[in-house]
Each structure stands twice: as structure tokens, then as C-alpha cells.
Amino acid sequence: MDFAFSEEQDEFRSVLRRFFEEHSDLRAVRRAFGSADGFDRGLWRQMAHELGLQGIHLPEALGGHGFGFLELGIVMEEMGRALVPGPFLASSVLAAGAIRSAGSAEDHACLLPGVASGERIGALALVEASGSWDPAAVAAEATPGADEVRLSGRKEAVLSGDVADFFVVVARTPGSAGADGIVAVVVEADAPGVTVEAQEALDLTRRQARVSFQQAPGRRLGPALPAGSAADGIRGALQQGAVAVAAESIGGADAALGMAVAYSKLRVQFARPIGSFQGLKHMAAEVLRDIELARAATYWSWWVAEDDAEELAQAAPLAKAASSEAFVAAAAANLQIHGGIGFTWEHDAHLFYKRAKSDELLLGDGTAQRASLATALGF
């Protein structure tokens, strides 16, 4: 297999980088996350109409562009580099992935075109009070009815839940336990019995919400599937999500290290740029080593996800653990090299650190990812 990017993919990356540098620099990022929606809806529309990013990896028949995880990885990496606020990860990656994995062809045709066009924003509602990302741990119940299901329960840390048009809710049928009886239910955000509360999040560029369901009406994805079969589909969507978060972390780590190196060349102490001090050189070199090792694991996971290989259960947690930890290391070094100014609200270094810590916990931290990897390897 050729692991090199094609000329078209390299050019696509260049176009994305120029686009985000022009339309979403860090000043624009601050304006966006300080707005009512927490992101720039004008930029969101540009991303959809000019570049087609929201549907880059979705089939053309469903309104997408028919590309794969290589192109999606490039998008996530460049968005991570720019700390672009918005519901891209929540809607185009996690919600769309759950729909594709757990839904029927009819579900795909009904839901994915709106996601691909950016006209509809979806959010995956999975995590509950336990904080577990394992579908088998959910307690929310979906009670079957004649034409719809009734959903009851509460979901925590729903990414972009405050701006979602609909939720893909992971729940279980009454009386089931573990992975048995797991279902995915689509519930409209304005449906009766749905309450959305914004939650304070560490990462200012990615909002979260608590969503409560009180006998809320919804429609089960893939109704022809037997009860419990949605668990494996949701796990597959989460593995794909881990690959996307890994890509985002690599982009953020690159940007954080670049910010630190640029400052070390400008800041002068004892009549010398601080970048000439051996201690800071070693720090930057160690971070670069971590990033490049994580990049190799992350790029490999893109190719595995592209081929839908069985190796994804190994590649996704490896990439997620390595990249998120490299991002945290790069963001922490960026703060340290900047010194006191890096810890102030006015400086942008803290934005990278907050995104890094958020990405580290998202979909499970390094310990959880290594446990998943060990399980996939049969240990």
C-alpha cells in the first residue's frame, strides 16, 4: 500500500489551510465562540457551499462528495490546526457515523442529505452520568410504540447539543442489560419532552449540553435490525470518531508547537533569543518527536478506516491515545515557553491547551483507549 498523499490531496490540504487562515484566524475564533451560537454560522455555510466539507466523506447519492477518511482526516487536521469552533465533529462525524452504522438505507436517505448540506445539525447523545463511552453502559430507555418509540433518560456532555436540530440517542429497550437491547433513536430537538441545558465546557471552542428526555417521541434507526444489534454499529462509529479526533489533535499539536517555536525566536533574555537555550531546544525536540510518532499512527488509522478493515479496532485507539497525549504535551510546552503571558486570557496559548485536554477526554482518555487496544489484541 502506498501511504503517500496524492497531489490532489496535498492541494486539497493547501486550499483548506488558506481558507481557514483567511476566514478563521484566532481573532475570528474568539469572536465565534463568544457569539450566541458559539460558532460562526456564516463560516459554516461557506464550508458547506464553497468547499462541501460537511459531506466530504458521505456518498454522492446522499448529497456528499463521495470521498473517504483520507480526505476527512485532512479536513479534521486542518480544522484542528485552526481551532475552528462549530458542530463539524458532532454532526458530520459522530452523528453521521452513527446513522450510517446503525441506520437503514431509508434512514440514510432521510437524514444524511441535510447533514451533508450543513442545513441540519445532528448530535450524538450517548454519555450519561457514569461518563462511559461504552454503549453497553447506557441506562436511557426507549419504549417501543405503534409508530414510534418513547425515550426517557438524561444525556451528559452532548457535543454541540445546544445548536443541534436532532439527536441520535443511544438507548436500550426496557428490561435489557449490557450490550443486549441497545438501539439508536432519532429525536428532534424541538420534540415534546426534550430539554436542552448548556453546560460549561473547558474547551471554549466546542460547546456541550445536557439533554433530558421525558417520554420524548422518536424514531428508531434500522427498525428491521434485531434488538441489541445497534451496539456494534455504535462502537464502529465511535472508532471512526476516534480517528477523526486523532487527526484534529495532530493539527492542534502542530500549531501549538509552531506558536512556541516562533515565540522562542522573538523573546530575548540575557541578550539572546530564548530559543537558543539548550533546555528549550530539548523541550521542543521532545514534543516534535511525540507529534511525529503520533502522526504516523494517526495517518495509518486513516488508511485503515478508508478500507473499513478489521484493524480499525486496533488502529483507532492507538491513534487516539498517541495523538491526544502529543497534543497535551505540545500545548503544555507552548504555555511553558511563553511563561506568564501564556496563562493570560488575552493570549491564545490557553485555547490550545483547553482543546488538547478536551480532546484527551473525548471518546475516552489514554487509559481507556489502551484498554480497548488490549481487548482488540486479545489480551
Describe the overall structure.
This protein is of the alpha+beta class. The protein folds into 3 domains: 7-117, Acyl-CoA dehydrogenase/oxidase, N-terminal domain (Butyryl-Coa Dehydrogenase, subunit A, domain 1, Orthogonal Bundle); 122-230, Butyryl-CoA Dehydrogenase, subunit A, domain 2, CATH 2.40.110.10; 231-376, Butyryl-CoA Dehydrogenase, subunit A, domain 3. 52% of the residues lie in helices and 15% in strands. It has 11 helices and 9 strands. It has helices at 7-23, 26-33, 41-51, 69-82, 88-102, 105-117, 230-266, 278-307, 312-338, 349-361, 366-376, and strands at residues 122-125, 141-144, 149-159, 166-172, 182-188, 194-199, 208-220, 268-269, 272-273. Strands 1, 2, 3, 4, 5, 6 and 7 form a 7-stranded mixed β-sheet that branches. It has a two-stranded antiparallel ribbon with strand order 8-9. A hairpin with a 2-residue loop joins strand 8 and strand 9. It is globular. The model has no long low-confidence stretch (mean pLDDT 93).
Q: Summed up, what is this model?
A:
It is built from 11 helices and 9 strands.
Mean pLDDT: 93
Q: Could you please say which CATH topology of the largest domain applies here?
A: Butyryl-CoA Dehydrogenase, subunit A, domain 3
End-to-end CA span: 28 Å
Shape: globular
Structurally, how many domains make up the residues?
3
Number of helices: 11
Number of distinct beta strands: 9
User: Proportion of β residues?
Assistant: 5-15%
Rg is 21 Å
Sheet with the most strands, sense and barrel status = 7 strands, mixed
Q: Based on helices, strands and strand pairing, what is the structural class?
A: alpha+beta
What pattern of helices and strands is seen along the backbone? Answer: HHHHHHEEEEEEEHEEHHHH
Q: Summarize the amount of helix as a percent range.
A: 40-55%
Known CATH architecture of the largest domain: Up-down Bundle
CATH top level of the largest domain is: Mainly Alpha
**The CATH homologous superfamily of the largest domain:** Butyryl-CoA Dehydrogenase, subunit A, domain 3
Low-confidence blocks of residues: none
